[in-house]
Amino acid sequence: MSRLSSKVPSPSVERLKAEAQRLFANRGIDGVTVRDIAKAAGQKNPAAVGYHFGSKEALIRELIVDGAKIIDARRNEQLDALEESGGPTSISQITDILIYPSVNLAAEGETDTYNRFLHMLTMSHRALFDDALGGRWNSGYQRCLEHLRVLMPSKKRTIQNQRFIFLESYLGGVLSARETRLDDKSRAHSTWNDKSTLAHFADTVTCMLEME
């Protein structure tokens, strides 16, 4: 399964990106300076972000696309396999494809921060997120929605559109909360460490979409 570490640029660039994403996930992009990022990454030169990426915004855009590419590739791969086997035949199959490709993105031994980063970003800078994607790296998500339009009990476009708005917020909120809890080493989080929790989450998403 692809991870965010699948491409191998210089270690210093990767460390800057990892620390920037972690800081953005915890503080939001407006609460983090390029100096903060350089310091967290162990860079003595506070201009390291500008040198490697051009600007803080350019770094943010690269982080958005890095994760989006991997999630999109995973979703499309799973959708292709499902369609080749004659599916999908149920909403739950699509729900799984919406959820599971979005987890376990970090490099081995690192903590996931991508969903938290996106959640914080889209609350205050949605236009930046949309522009960075440029309609290119969410084709798997759009394919999922098209399948759901066929499978959902209600065929009314307005109801489907409302459910899709709920869906996006629900996915982002819960996956972000999961990352936050798993990153907290001060105490055990038995619910989020339980392998059945994501399956239960998927069941609740399916129930919302299957409502008459």
From TrEMBL:
It comes from the Bacteria. GO terms for molecular function: DNA-binding transcription factor activity; transcription cis-regulatory region binding. Coiled coil: none annotated. Pfam families: TetR_N. InterPro entries: Homeodomain-like_sf, HTH-type_TetR-like_transc_reg, HTH_TetR. Residues 19-63 form the HTH tetR-type domain. This is TetR/AcrR family transcriptional regulator. Keywords: DNA-binding. It comes from Aliishimia ponticola.
